[in-house]
């Protein structure tokens, strides 16, 4: 599959690796999902944080729970 600037690189890589297992609808969903992830990542990169910014919440494991 030739590189297409309209298709996110993660979708291109997935199609190259698994494309023979996907039908056209699945490829379309893969490309759309990859684009949404790329857009969300770009939005996150735009957030300016200072060195002292704390996380919004703290993780606390539940005692006695096994995964």
Q: What is the arithmetic mean of pLDDT?
A: 86
Shape: flat
Strand content: under 5%
Helical fraction: 40-55%
User: Topology as H/E string?
Assistant: HH
Count of helix runs: 2
- Mind summarizing the main beta sheet? none
Could you tell me the number of beta strands? 0
Provide the low-confidence segments as ranges: none
Describe the structure.
The protein has 67 residues and is an all-alpha fold. The chain has a domain at 9-44. 49% of the residues lie in helices and 0% in strands. It contains 2 helices and no strands. The chain has helices at residues 9-18, 24-46. Helix 1 packs antiparallel against helix 2 (24-46). The longest helix has 23 residues, at 24-46. It is flat and about 45 Å long.
Topology:
Blueprint: H1 9-18, H2 24-46
Helix pairs in contact: 1-2
Summarize this structure as a short list of keywords or feature phrases.
single chain, 67 residues, mainly alpha, 49% helix
Short characterization:
The protein has 67 residues and is mainly α.
């Amino acid at each position: 599959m030739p590189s297409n600037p309209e298709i996110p690189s993660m979708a291109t890589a997935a199609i190259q690796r698994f494309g023979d297992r996907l039908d056209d609808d699945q490829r379309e969903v893969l490309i759309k999902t990859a684009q949404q992830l790329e857009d969300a990542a770009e939005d996150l990169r735009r957030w300016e944080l200072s060195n002292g910014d704390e996380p919004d919440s703290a993780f606390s494991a539940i005692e006695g729970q096994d995964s």
